[in-house]
Amino acid sequence: MASGRTHIAGTVALAPMTAMAAWQLTGGDAVAMAIAGAGCLSGVLISPDLDMSRRTISETLLLRWNLAVGWLWIALWFPYAFFSKHRGLSHVPILGTLSRMLYLTVCYVALHYFLREFYAIDLLYWPQLYQQQLLIFVTGLAVSDIGHWILDGCTLS
After folding, report:
1. Hey, how many other C-beta atoms are within 10 angstroms of the C-beta on 91?
2. Are 49 and 4 spatial neighbours (Cβ–Cβ below 8 Å)?
3. Cβ distance 149 to 91 under 8 Å?
4. What is the pLDDT of residues 5-60, one digit of tens each?
5. Residue 89: which of 38, 2, 149 has the closest Cα?
6. Dihedral, 135, 140, 143, 144 alpha carbons, nearest 10
7. How far apart are CA 68 and CA 71, in angstroms?
């Protein structure tokens, strides 16, 4: 199994290739290229290793960058790590990506209802408006996850 630093390096190396693939597949759409590259790069933070009970290298880096944001990120993903088996569903290509996106969607909807109740803010408007961009972003993240899986030796528990 590859180290966290190796996974980060692999994700960073995949991002420009993912962006260029999006550019080619969309006939030169610069926005799609940027979103796909960003989706792939987001794999540094939204990685399959968020199912670990111990702190990951990306969480450590986030804590070093900003202590409050780092602890909020760790708290956000604690239930996911608690209920997930390491190298279980989270490490299955595509399904792992979708499981983390489902988890984030549940958190987003909960935040939406909280903000709507107390502050009259409607967060559900934005995902509906940007469905295609969200799909491109998640596809970029899936590419990162496939790279993670390959670096782990293409194994499933």
Report:
1. 23
2. yes
3. yes
4. 888 999 999 999 999 999 999 999 999 999 999 999 999 999 998 988 888 888 99
5. 149
6. -130
7. 5
